[in-house]
Design a protein that fits this description.
The complex is a heterodimer of chains A (283) and B (348).
Chain A: E1 13-16, H1 20-44, H2 49-57, H3 60-91, H4 107-120, H5 134-158, H6 160-163, H7 170-192, H8 194-201, H9 211-214, E2 216-218, H10 219-225, H11 227-236, E3 243-245, H12 250-282
Antiparallel strand pairs in A: 1-2, 1-3
Chain B: H1 2-14, H2 21-42, H3 44-47, H4 54-57, E1 63-64, E2 76-77, H5 82-86, H6 95-98, H7 117-126, H8 130-137, H9 140-148, H10 154-158, H11 173-187, H12 189-195, H13 199-205, H14 214-218, H15 231-238, H16 264-299, H17 301-310, H18 312-327, H19 334-338, H20 340-346
Helix pairs in contact in B: 1-2, 11-12, 16-17
Classes of the chains: A mainly alpha (283), B mainly alpha (348).
């Protein structure tokens, strides 16, 4: 089925994009993000007709507060796991920090952005992406920065007495404003455009991109999606590091089911948020 | 039932021309007797009115025809809505339990007119509620009342005939919210409005009855203004936040919706993130719209053409560039433009 696999005729080949660690982290991000948004947004938009209804569903303010804190712990867990992983990667020199395979923004991203706009306007070919596209890098770094800001201010408000033992009380006002605005921004970025669209809503991956659940994607998708990485690996002879026969066994089925479940949750969360945010604007 | 009573009382004489003074007593006694007998028939409602006050005061049009000097506008209404009174916590009381010192003389009660009615009122409450009264004495409200009679007294917050029962610590969030709005909000409408954007009030309005409202911090009867850094403010916060210290009290509780009256640091953060929010969302939605329609058109032929129609301006630009290319068919980029996806695969 995939191009360029003559030697392995009959074997379905996949490109392995995410390790078990990264998939696990994505689960943490997903669960905590949904949990935090669903329990936090009704408080921000308490004037919406839906706020009290949704609050009731999640156990009132007290229940919502409890879930919010549990989810916050999940949130800190993935943050520190990811920071730990990155530190280990850098310290143990597991690979180059810069370069085509890196998540660190580079000059090529800027060229890709310009290239994309040329492509939008029909004035050039679609840019040939490396392992991570510029919107994926934006997604990743924005999430890390957002988690740091929202998590930090959240902790300040979780333990207000401790916070004010070394900061004036007005710092909690700042924390509240920052937490609420940055969280709303993150919700918009994740739910409305960058992530749900660019990772899961594009035609080739709709309704959800399987890659973050199964870890791998069909070779032909990979070649079409990340031509630059493919060529680099072809040229360097490192394709065998990432290409392997499609995984089989019970986990593939579990992954597909999880994908369906989380797609449904994501759809619910997006509708929920839209109801709370857009409803008060209309009525 | 209640209104029925009122109508009957009307018929018994209140609506009729006022009797002259020397025949007043006889007439009043007769009316009182008639009312008492009526009461036997109409049941519980008028059973409380054993003194017959509602004979006159149950008439909605009953007013004081001899207004005080400083009174302007309409005559002072002397009407008491018996339904409201009977749903109040004081429904078991007789009128004279609070309205002390009145002699039952109709048409005019004999009043101690030298004494301000407000003073009479707080003394009436004190009769039963000594503890609350003592607390009130320490409040900022009482201080203003004793200075120039301008401060609120018991009835200013609790109402007079519609007093509700309050079970401290057991009230629903709705009840606390309405008490705050109806009592404190009457005079402190701006503070109430500001607090309603704040976390505690938001939680309360979503049904969290443990969240603080006005009187949880400012006190029920010993109301104080509370200034950041003052010991009494620390005490107020410590009721729920036992570890609160002086710094804790510098949290700004009463901020306007746009943070105009906030510390400048709060405003800076607010403006920065509001701007960021608008910029990111507007840019992001515009970008995604373009990206989405381009991807759908390129990859899903049929669906793509459908969505493509929705975004006429992109189409127009594309057609323009197409015409441009047609104008110079040997252009260097010509081959790669129409089918970039195929082009990618061609590299293999």
């Amino acid at each position: 089925m995939a191009a360029g696999t003559d030697a392995l005729e009959g074997v379905r080949l996949v490109y392995r994009r995410f390790s078990a660690f990264h998939r696990f982290n994505h689960y943490l991000v997903m669960i905590s993000f949904f949990g935090l948004v669903l329990t936090g947004i009704p408080l921000k938009f308490k004037d919406s007709l839906w706020a009290e209804f949704f609050m009731g569903l999640i156990g009132g303010v007290e229940g919502a507060g409890f879930i919010h804190r549990v989810m916050a712990v999940f949130n800190f867990t993935y943050f520190f796991l990811e920071m730990g992983y990155m530190s280990w990667y850098v310290a143990a020199r597991k690979g180059p920090i810069f370069g085509p395979d890196s998540i660190v923004p580079s000059k090529k991203d800027w060229q890709d952005i310009k290239g994309m706009f040329r492509w939008f306007l029909g004035r050039g070919p679609k840019p040939r992406f490396n392992r991570f596209t510029y919107w994926e890098k934006f997604d990743f770094w924005a999430l890390l920065a957002g988690t740091f800001l929202i998590g930090g201010t959240g902790l300040m408000m979780w333990f207000p007495e401790f916070t004010t033992s070394f900061l004036p009380g007005v710092s909690l006002n700042v924390a509240l404003v920052l937490h609420s605005n940055e969280a709303f921004l993150a919700t918009g970025v994740i739910f409305i455009f960058v992530h749900f669209f660019s990772a899961h809503g594009r035609p080739e991956s709709f309704p959800a991109d399987e890659v973050i659940f199964s870890g791998s994607l069909p070779l032909d998708h990979y070649i079409a999606d990340r031509p630059a990485e493919y060529e680099n690996r072809l040229r360097a002879g490192t394709l065998d590091q990432v290409v392997r026969p499609a995984p089989t066994g019970p986990m593939t089925r579990v992954n597909s089911w999880l994908m369906v479940v989380f797609s449904a949750v994501a759809l619910f969360a997006a509708t929920y948020t839209m109801l709370l945010v857009v409803w008060p604007l209309l009525f | 039932m209640q209104s029925n009573t009122g109508e009957k009382m009307n018929m018994t004489g209140v609506g009729l021309p006022r009797p002259r003074r020397h025949v007043g007593r006889a007439a009043a006694s007769a009316t009182l007797l008639a009312a008492l007998m009526l009461g036997l028939f109409v049941g519980v409602a008028s059973a409380q009115d054993v003194e017959g006050c509602l004979i006159c005061h149950g008439d909605p049009n009953f007013t004081d025809p001899t207004p005080a000097e400083n009174q302007e506008g309409d005559d002072l209404s002397l009407y008491v809505d018996s339904e409201v009174f009977l749903s109040s916590v004081h429904k078991e009381l007789k009128c004279s339990d609070c309205h002390e010192g009145f002699l039952l003389t109709i048409p005019n009660h004999q009043l101690d007119m030298d004494k301000d009615f407000r003073q009479v009122a707080i003394e009436a409450c004190e009769g039963c509620h000594q503890e609350a009264f003592q607390e009130y004495q320490t409040s900022d409200h009482a201080q203003r009342f004793y200075e120039d009679q301008a401060g609120p007294i018991c009835i200013s917050c609790h109402g007079s005939h519609a007093i509700r029962r309050v079970n401290l610590g057991e009230e629903s969030a709705d009840f606390k919210m309405s008490m705050a709005r109806d009592s404190c909000g009457q005079c402190h409408a701006d503070k109430f409005e500001q607090a309603s954007h704040e976390f505690h009030f938001k939680a309360l309005s979503l049904g969290y009855e443990r969240a603080a409202t006005c009187f949880d911090c400012h006190g029920f009867h010993d109301n104080l203004a509370l200034t950041s850094g003052e010991p009494e403010t620390v005490e107020a916060c410590r009721q729920c936040h036992p570890g609160a210290n002086e710094g804790f009290t510098y949290f700004q509780m009463h901020l306007e919706e746009g943070f105009q009256n906030a510390w400048w640091g709060v405003r800076v953060v607010y403006y920065f993130f509001s701007t960021l929010l608008v910029v990111v969302l507007v840019t992001g939605i515009a970008y995604t719209t373009v990206h989405f329609q381009k991807e759908t058109r390129t990859i899903l032929g049929v669906f793509g053409r459908g969505t493509g129609r929705l975004f006429g301006f992109i189409r127009q630009l594309e057609e323009e560039s197409m015409r441009e290319r047609e104008g110079r068919p040997n252009g260097p980029e010509d081959q790669s433009k129409d089918e970039p996806e195929n082009d990618d695969r061609g590299m293999l």
